[in-house]
Amino acid sequence: MEWKPNRADKKAIYKQITEYMERGISSGDFPPNSVLPSERALAKELGVNRSTVVAAYEELQSAGLVERKKGSGTRVSTDIWGISHRRIPNWSRYVEQGSFLPNLPLVQRIRKEAQGNDLINLASGELSSDLFPIHHFQRFLSQQQFNGNLGYDHPQGNLTLRETISSHVKTYKNIDASPSSILITSGAQQALHLIVQCLLKPGDAVAIEDPSYCFSLPLFQSAGLRTFLLPVDQHGINPNDLIALHRKHRIRMVFLNPTYQNPTGTILHPARRKQILELSSEFGIPIIEDDPYSLTSFTGGIGSTLKSMDDNGNILYVSSLSKIVASGLRIGWIIGPQPVIERLADAKQQVDFGHSVFPQWIAEQFLGSDQFHSHIHMLQDQLKQKRDLMISSLSEFLDNKVEFMIPEGGIHMWCKLNGPINEYQLLEEAIKKGVVFVPGSIFGSKKGYVRFTFGRGETNLIQEGILRFADALKSME
Fold first, then answer.
1. At what angle do helices 370-397 and 459-475 cross, to 10 degrees?
2. Residue 82: which pLDDT band, with cuts at 50, 70 and 90?
3. Is the pLDDT of residue 296 over 50?
4. Structure confidence at residue 81 (pLDDT)
5. Alpha-carbon distance 169 to 308, whole Å?
6. What share of the chain is helix, strand, coil (3-state, %, to 5)?
7. How far apart are CA 44 and CA 61, in angstroms?
């Protein structure tokens, strides 16, 4: 056999062998019913372990390409292409080779563990059920009758909802937006996906915050983009870092979460906001402003969004009801120049033929009601109480073992661990103790940090959750 596996290839050796044998079977080099080399002989010929050949043969068997019988060796199946035999697709290969990348394994693990009923969840970036406006929903659902159209709606989303959002962003965020400049999306996540897929191309350079929620999203890598990091300090990103990145890499787009940033909770300083807008105009770089948290301000005051300061149409503004009403509604929106919105709407229609009718109706009813205003006040008050409880719990149980800034809004607490620690081992220990959090390195380059989500933690369990985390940390000392 002249072929040999390539040890410099990142692909596993047994997979290389599998693919080589499959090509040989398909081309007829290994005819039906022919006997393949024994495991020991093939391993010796290729210079690999016998277990590697066993793994390759097992994969060929699972695909229906070979038959293995003890004492008879491994034979190529006699009826691969026949009527009586139906080949099983090699699903593992399809799964591995798809162009859209899966979530990081650690993210998948955290999500799986966070769904466990016996764990205290300080990881999931959402509100706890006691903060959902269930009573408000029940009231207007019992009083209002749905009389809308059950067919496909406008590609940009229901017009009445877009009119309500237009009024909402003007009232709460001083953003002037016509209904035609708004696209309804399935939360902010779909909004980001549409922007990446429609407005960028493989090889483009984009800048994201470090740390940042965007760092954990595989959609940038799936689209073939080059991501560059903008360090976040207590005042947000430094505009000078953006200048340096652009000069070196020709940045095509910047993704920012300026208000109560996830995960740090920081607010981009007003002077820096102004400079970022000036740089956007100078270099012609669009800014994607992700604003899920600004209405959660614990002081009641809401600072200027980048979009409210945008006189040139350089900002694509993304927001949703996920962090302030209910994540399960899946109502988000993008505000931007009409040609951009129409392009994104066309792509969304290709994916799902437009947003579901009923969530849009419910969102419009609630967003346009007096109850929304009272709900926001309740939310600000309750989140502040949860934050304060987490602060007191961190001070009581971890004392000098962690450092943190106190956020003035949002739902996250970003903590620096004092002393070297393996975040992933700490997560495993914490899960054993019955609490789950997010290791900081999921969000960027910084090591030795953790993120707790006090918005997700039930009020009566936040203290217990931090106590369990403290026990996990102590067990590693």
1. 30
2. low
3. yes
4. 59
5. 9
6. 50, 15, 40
7. 21
CATH class assigned to 105-129+373-475: alpha beta
CATH classification for the domain delimited by 13-97, as one of 2.130.10.10, 1.10.10.10, 1.10.340.30, 1.20.120.420: 1.10.10.10
Name the token pair of 21.
């044998």
Provide the 3-class DSSP secondary structure of residue 207: strand
Q: Note the pLDDT of residue 454.
A: 96
DSSP-derived letter for residue 32 is T
Classify burial at 363, counting beta carbons within 10 Å of its beta carbon; exposed 0-12, middle 13-18, buried 19 or more. Answer: buried
Q: What is the DSSP string of 390-458?
A: HHHHHHHHTGGGEEE---SSSSEEEEEESS---HHHHHHHHHHHTEE-EEGGGGSS--SEEEEETTTS-
The dihedral sign for the CA sequence 266, 391, 428, 120:
negative
DSSP states of 314-342: -EEEEEESTTTT-GGG--EEEE--HHHHH
Domain ranges of the chain: 13-97, 105-129+373-475, 147-369
Question: Using CA atoms, how far apart are residues 180 and 341, in angstroms rounded to an integer?
Answer: 8
Residue whose entry in the numeric block shows the structure tokens 């940045």: 251
462: left (phi over 0), alpha (psi -120 to 50) or beta: alpha
| Beta strands in 91-225, from DSSP E residues, in sequence order | 120-121, 182-185, 205-210
Instruction: Kindly state the percentage of the chain with pLDDT values over 90.
Output: 69
Question: What b/e sequence results for 123-135 when a residue is b if at least 16 CB atoms lie within 10 Å of its CB, and e otherwise?
Answer: bbbbbbeebbbee
Region 147-369: CATH code: 3.40.640.10
Alpha-carbon span 144 to 362, nearest angstrom: 10
